[in-house]
Amino acid sequence: MNRARIPLIVCFFVMLFIAACSPTAPAQPAQTAEPVELSDCQLSAQGLQTRMAALCGRISVYEDRQSRTGRQIELNVAVIPAISRNPAEDPLIFLTGGPGQAATESYLSLSFAFDRINQKREIILVDQRGTGKSNPLVCGYNQDNTLDLEDEDLIPSLQECLNDLPARPELYTTPIAMDDLDQVREALGYEKINLYGLSYGSRAALTYLANYPEHVRTVILDGIVPQDEILGLEVARDAQRALDLILERCKADEACARAFPGVEEDFRELLAQLEDDPRNVSVSDPITGDRVEFKFTPAEFSTAVRLLSYTPETAALLPLLIHQTKESNDYHLIAAQYLIVAGQISDSISNGMGFSVLCAEDVPFMTETDAAAANANTYIGNAQTDELFRICQVWPSGEVPANFKQPVRSDLPVLVLSGEVDPVTPPENGEKIIQTLPNSLHLIVPGYGHNVIYRGCIPRLAATFIEQGSLEGLDTACVNQISPMPFFTNFSGPIP
To answer: Which of 225, 436, 447, 456 has a CA-to-CA distance to 429 between 20 and 30 Å?
Structure first.
């Protein structure tokens, strides 16, 4: 069985209001929020055995909110009831990443991090327009439902997808989706809400905060995408930074350094070998067990390394995988990891929605000159940005407010979370946004990568923050006691 290349663009991600200085969207015509009828349901996600009881419903919104004419789409809404019989009146709304993930799916793998919050507060999940069960925008073309992005196939594949989509893709931007979210808030009967934004979801949360500050009580941002960030431009640089930190930690670790001397040079040599001679590999599909044959190029190798950098558990394997591949001249182990990590993310993303966001909110602010400068001296190089430019030549681009890319200013309490070794939303992003959020606190988890809400004492700190609605007295000393997983020196695991 042959498998086409999985897209490189996967998972980029993820205050009292000072009205005069914050970016706001043009006023949207009001859309009456009819009450949502909720009924018992079970949340599930592909690849997860977890099932969760919830109350689910649908709410209709105009696809074109400005004109309030034409197609209406239904948003998929789920409410996780609070454990308490007397819950707080302000729920937590979970905004997920991608862009293109569905909140009702991605929450399942993180739900334990919100157990304390859920004791007294409902958790609200809304599949953003274009994702999950909210009119998903998905492009898939071959027997494995993956988009073939080889040069000669990209344009006709995208055009075919656009012809088949029941949507106007230019209307699936973040500002419009946050107008949807406020309609859901009103329909559910909440005056104030708490926001949690993960990765791209942090951009969504900041957009909601800018446009609807009167309805926000607190905000938690985890893996920050600042409003003025051009998603995609810094992917190669941030990935290189994370890999450098991981390999530097290996060199500083006695066991890892002894097992894998020269691992940085091994990595460079492997990449050079693939550039000269891509390998045909045949590995077992991690889901079906079938043999999968495909060409393993620098693009696949780089994608595997970047995605393995996301968590310390998978990063702990990187020196071993690099060393083993170099010693054996056999790429099957790293190719199998590529299928696992890239396949998991590709299966969870509505890629068309991601294109709609990036082609409206990021690529118009990116130049090829800037991209070349940002990509220089990185192991990914121009692959990500070249792909973005090509996609957005075809994909319809919506409009965002002229001041959409301006930093959000607010005096409301904001807890900002970063992983020190995050390969896609590095800590410098968190440092940037707190400059205009004077009532904020930035916590950096040492040695960790992307998405840290569930790490160590962070769930307790987040719950305390939400409960008191303030950063006052938050004891954060425990964050520096969190340490990453030790490196694997063989496939039996780390040295005890």
So the answer is: 456
